[in-house]
Write a structure and sequence with these properties.
This protein is mainly α. It has helices at about 65, 90-95, 100-105, 120-125, 155-160, 175-180, 195-200, 210, 215-225, 240-250, 255, 260-270, 305-315, 325-330, 350-355, 380-385, 400-410, 430-440, 440-445, 450-460, 475-480, 485, 490-495; strands at about 15, 20-25, 75. Among the domains are: about 1-145, no CATH class; about 390-425 and about 430-450, no CATH class; about 450-495, no CATH class. α1 (about 65) links the parallel β2 (about 20-25) and β3 (about 75). The longest helix has 11 residues, at about 240-250. It starts with 13 loop residues before the first strand and ends with a helix. Mean pLDDT is about 75; it is low at about 1-20, about 335-355, about 355-370 and about 415-420.
Length: about 500
């Protein structure tokens, strides 16, 4: 039985209708405690189930209850339903605390009457429980709250209204929050879902702390129209960052992947850069990450085209980090067999320079005046570079086709008639000493010679039958490994045991 202080009619707006009187209040509005303050002397008159934890009884106000005091025919009002919450709270446990009244937790600030009440405030909890404050970094959320995934009654609007912890207001929070999120006592799951992180993290699927968070449709609806935000880290502020960032990236490419997807780097480094495999591909509908605009490296001014040969030959800077081999071939394409390489059709920039539309015209060589990739008269002294086994020759030249064609046409190669001594005519004893060179670099010999060139002298089946084997040669060991190779020069009867 509810306890009332009086049964007098209350001063509440009454709407008269035909056939009787109607008491009308806004639907789903909280009960007007303030105007009932003189009518009740205990909260349990309406909230009888609280001490026992009876959820069905503590919000049990009905039309019949109101009609006990209001002399009307009908009540047009219903109490609001339970509010969504993520709290872990037990009224029965707190009801056992001696002298703890409802107003201790629900009383409004500076309330003078016991029915001046509202929702309990988090700050009140710390009057009894240890902790600095509700939003302090060392406050353990699980003491009062369930995780967001378990708080199924919360609406998206309630989640959006969550207050920010003090740590989230610090200037360096975005750049420093990763370490906190990876700690064992991280509280992220009480306010965040995967969608909270994947709005900015292009590598969200590769970060274990993010993957551990459940997905949440409510959070997804809040982040759907919000773009990612990537503040510039302090390390990126240096004036030399564009030229030194490679070292940093090589040591921690996973850190770069927080903000950068592959297109961020491929704009400068091309699509074939090996480190791109460590960066994620952008996901459709996901964050694109930081987009880097390709900039010219220091020193690449309008005169660099005429002076880049020295830098390229030294490998400083690392040309292949930004340029593909095809770009070099485009300018240094060969103009005819045996001719020194010349630039191909000039680019649009070079053409503009040639026509006087660019101030750098005098410093950029044209196809008519330049000597190409190699310096003037290089063909007359290229043998030294070729003999030094410079691997970069093959970047542009096919030794099997280009070199042999030229040397044969000019009479400096083995055309089948000169018996292999024309190209080596500056070394009179070459025939006697060529074995050492062959053993050190057979690939070089193969650029001009085929196997039958060697078999003229070194076959045991015909010709001069000169043995190519050195003094420490072990025929049995070689025969065990490949009798077919031996059979090229030796007959089967000799190979048989």
């Amino acid at each position: 039985m509810r306890r009332f202080a009086t049964r007098a009619a209350l001063a509440i707006p009454v709407l008269l209708i035909a056939g009787g009187a109607l008491l009308s209040l806004p639907q789903d509005e909280p009960f007007p405690h303030d105007i009932h303050v003189d009518m009740f002397n205990t909260c349990l008159g309406c909230h009888a189930g609280i001490p026992e934890g009876d959820g069905a009884a503590w919000l049990s106000v009905t039309e019949a209850d109101c009609l006990e005091c209001h002399e009307v025919d009908e009540i047009d009002w219903s109490p609001p339903g339970p509010r969504g919450t993520n709290l872990v709270f037990s009224h029965p446990d707190h009801a056992e605390i001696e002298e703890l009244e409802c107003g201790e937790c629900h009383g409004l600030p500076d309330a003078e009457e016991f029915m001046e009440v509202g929702a309990a405030r988090p700050t009140i909890c710390f009057d009894c429980h240890d902790g600095d404050s509700h939003l302090a970094a060392n406050t353990e959320c699980s003491f009062c709250h369930v995780s967001l995934a378990d708080a199924t009654t919360l609406t998206a609007g309630q989640i959006a209204a969550f207050p920010n912890p003090f740590s989230h207001e610090q200037d360096d929070f975005i750049s420093a929050h990763g370490e906190a999120a990876l700690s064992a006592d991280a509280n992220c799951a009480f306010c965040h879902a995967q969608e909270s992180c994947s709005r900015c993290h292009v590598n969200a699927g590769q970060v274990s702390a993010i993957a551990a968070l459940p997905t949440d449709a409510r959070v997804a609806s809040l982040t759907a129209d919000r773009d990612g935000w990537w503040p510039t880290p302090a390390s990126h502020e240096g004036s030399d960052w564009a030229t030194v960032h490679g070292t940093e990236a090589a040591g921690a490419i996973e850190s770069c992947a927080n903000c950068h997807a592959r297109p961020s780097c491929s704009g400068c480094h091309g699509d074939s850069a090996p480190f791109l495999a460590a960066l994620p591909e952008p996901v459709k509908g996901g964050p694109a990450g930081v987009q880097v605009v390709a900039l010219r490296p220091p020193g690449h001014d309008f005169t660099f085209a005429a002076q880049h040969a020295t830098a390229a030959s030294l490998g400083l800077p690392n040309c292949s980090a930004c340029h593909a081999e095809a770009e070099c071939v485009d300018c240094h394409a060969l103009r005819g067999t045996g001719q020194p390489p010349l630039p191909s059709v000039p680019s649009a920039r070079h053409q503009a320079q040639k026509e006087g539309e660019d101030p750098g015209v005098a410093a950029v060589p044209s196809a008519e005046t330049a000597g190409g990739f190699h310096p003037v008269n290089f063909i007359m002294r290229h043998a030294a570079d070729a003999y030094s086994v410079r691997s970069d020759c093959t970047d542009c030249h096919s030794t099997e086709v280009f070199c042999r064609d030229c040397h044969t046409n000019l009479g400096f190669g083995d055309n089948g008639a000169t018996r292999g001594n024309a190209f080596h005519n500056l070394q009179p004893d070459w025939l006697l000493s060529h074995g050492r060179a062959a053993r050190q670099g057979m690939e070089e010999c193969a650029s001009c010679h085929q196997q039958d060139s060697c078999l003229r002298c070194h076959s045991a089946k015909a010709g001069w039958r000169v043995s190519p084997h050195g003094p420490d040669f072990d025929p049995e060991r070689v025969s065990e490994r490949s009798r077919q190779s031996c059979g090229i020069c030796h007959s089967g009867s000799i190979l048989d045991p």
